[in-house]
Amino acid sequence: MSKTIDTTRRSFLKVGALVAAPAAAIGIPVAAMAEDGSKAALARLQDERAIEALNRDFLRAFNRGGAKDTASLFADRKGPAFAKGVSKLSLDLAEEPRSFAIAEDGATATARYDCTAEIADELAGKETLVQMARMQGNSAGSQSARVTLSAQYAKRGEGWLIASLDLA
């Protein structure tokens, strides 16, 4: 009586699941099991995702309420200095940054993004109606321009924060 062994992908996956189950059951983190360079790669990936989330939070807050709403995302708690006239920023988050680098020590990072800035022209005049219109967020007009957003990030105890942002 011969015994045949079925070696299909399904049997391979079943065996892999049985081998991995004890490690998952006792709660061994994936990073602890990896002793090769994958720990550093995992840490870098986590840092990249944290910076992407920080960018999304910045854009959402800036477009909603301007520079004053973004101060908590900055290391100096002041917000961006470029906000004069810039009313909205559009960054295609699905697109790769022009450049992105995390320092060897993992404490700082830099990035350059192509984005679209909406620049509003302020209403001129000191009349009451003009002042009221300005307070409501109205402007004489606006124009869109393609710009480069240069960002520098710093990692603190509470996570990644924006060190500085510049538009060019």
What can you see in these coordinates?
The longest helix has 28 residues, at 38-65. The mean pLDDT is 80. Strands 1, 2, 3, 4 and 5 form a five-stranded antiparallel β-sheet that branches. The protein has helices at 9-25, 30-33, 38-65, 128-135; strands at residues 86-90, 99-102, 108-121, 141-156, 159-167. The protein is α+β, with helices and mostly antiparallel strands and 168 residues long. It has one domain (29-167): Roll (Nuclear Transport Factor 2, Chain: A).
What are the key terms here?
single chain; Nuclear Transport Factor 2, Chain: A; 168 residues; 5 strands; five-stranded antiparallel sheet
Ranges where pLDDT stays below 50 over 5 or more residues in a row are none
Query: Into which percentage range does the β-strand content fall?
Result: 25-35%
SS content category:
alpha+beta
Number of helices: 4
Can you count the beta strands? 5
In CATH, the architecture is: Roll
CATH top level assignment: Alpha Beta
Please outline the major beta sheet: 5 strands, antiparallel
Total domain units = 1
Q: What is the N-to-C succession of helices and strands?
A: HHHEEEHEE
Distance between the termini: 78 Å
Shape: elongated
CATH topology: Nuclear Transport Factor 2, Chain: A
What Rg is obtained from the alpha carbons, in whole angstroms?
25 Å
Mean model confidence by pLDDT: 80
Helix content: 25-40%
